[in-house]
Amino acid sequence: MAETKLTNVVVPEIYNAYFQENFVGRSRFFRSGVIQNSAEIASLLNGGGSTFELPFTQQITATPAIPAETGSQTVNNTTTAQETIRRQMRTTAFGTNAIATIFSGSNQLQNIMSQFTDMWAADYDKAAIYTMQGIINDNLTNDSGDLVHDISDEATPNISDSRIIQTMAKMGENGVARGDNLNGSFSAIVMHSNVYNYLVDQDAITFVAISGQLRPLDFYKGLQVIVDDNCIQQSESSGYAYTTLLLKPGALQVGFSGNGYESISYNRVEDRGMGVDEIFLRTVFAIHSPCFAWVGASMAGLSPTNNELAKAANWNRVASYAQNAKFCALIHEIPDAWDIVT
Q1: What pLDDT was estimated at residue 115?
Q2: Is there a domain that residue 73 lies in?
Q3: Measured CA distances, 245 to 41, 315, 329, 331 (Å)
Q4: Which of 22, 179, 212, 314 sits at 20 to 30 Å (Cα–Cα) from 303?
Q5: What is the DSSP code string of 277-315?
Q6: 304 to 152, 193, 328: CA distances (angstroms)
Q7: For residue range 246-270, what is the model confidence (pLDDT) as tens digits?
Q8: Average pLDDT estimate for 142-149
Q9: Among 14-18, 267-271, 313-317, which stretch is predicted with the lowest mean pLDDT?
């Protein structure tokens, strides 16, 4: 009779479903509604190719005319554009020698497996931040910063309520705090932990008890707070500053694919120590922000790294109006006393 092995217990298809369900619960961006699952992106990923095009019709513009008894009326045209999505691939591996299990008294393999979901959730959240950083850098480089309020070089560069409102105003009538049915309202704000602690000290953060949550959620002016220490060094050319992001629901869309590869596999090495168990983890996904296209002008490998996601040269806005985007950014500083974690 053959013994039960990890390969008999962990079935990739079942693991994929388990992972995605738990990932949605662990990711701060998913919980806030900032990232939304896209069946369309997942479907595209299940086919071949490294990039995928999403064509759309640009917002129409026309000045209605006064009718006349004679003469022909001007007939306006529509224009199309396309968003481009980039397939991304990530892989990692872990191993544990049975000696570690013997001396520690705990199953190190189980310890590793119990942390997979948290690891991937943190990695996807980081990819989301770097994606937005790249779009911001492109906006500063090629679009006159029409989605970015940069006060880092001003005499009073600190974040404040009025600075946040000024940032929302970058989006015109689509930037009002509560929004409308046209383009929705902001739902979340992403900030560095130094910025968060400074705002807590200013009594600007509200803590609200939510049913089912282990602890109260943090809100700033009705926006759910996401704390991420990658919100720093926002520009490829300028110096030290903070980037605080204001996001609407669906600011990012994500799709996953388990097609053509095993998301988890296992290998047993008998000739090392008391035996080594190795686990290999893989994922194929795409993160996309509406109104923007992946250009990929500065990428070295088969899939973009986080640093490449943050490069201006790899992004371009394809929507006619900046106000149709689903996020904007404030680049700022805080008092020196609060620059604790860098």
Answers
A1: 79
A2: no
A3: 24, 18, 5, 9
A4: 22
A5: EEEEEEEEEEEE-TTEEE--SS--SSS--HHHHT-GGGE
A6: 29, 26, 23
A7: 999 899 999 998 888 888 888 888 8
A8: 94
A9: 14-18
Domain count, the chain: 1
Domain housing 39: 6-56+80-338
Residue 61 located in a structural domain: no
Distance in angstroms (rounded) separating the CA atoms of residues 305 and 1: 46
- Both structure tokens of 219: 């809100």
pTM of the model: 0.84
Distance, CA of 200 to CA of 289 (rounded, Å): 30
The one-letter amino acid code at 182 reads L
Q: Are residues 110 and 101 in contact, defined by beta-carbon separation less than 8 angstroms?
A: no
Backbone angles phi, psi at 103, to 5 degrees: -80, -30
Sign of the torsion formed by the C-alpha atoms of 114, 115, 118 and 120: negative
Q: Give pLDDT tens digits for 89-108.
A: 999 998 888 887 788 777 77
- DSSP E strands: which ranges in 143-291? 148-150, 188-191, 206-208, 217-220, 223-227, 242-247, 252-257, 264-269, 276-288
Amino acid identity for residue 76 in this structure: N
E-strand ranges in 43-167 read: 51-57, 80-86, 88-97, 148-150
Please tell me the number of Cα atoms within 13 Å of 155 on its side-chain side. 0
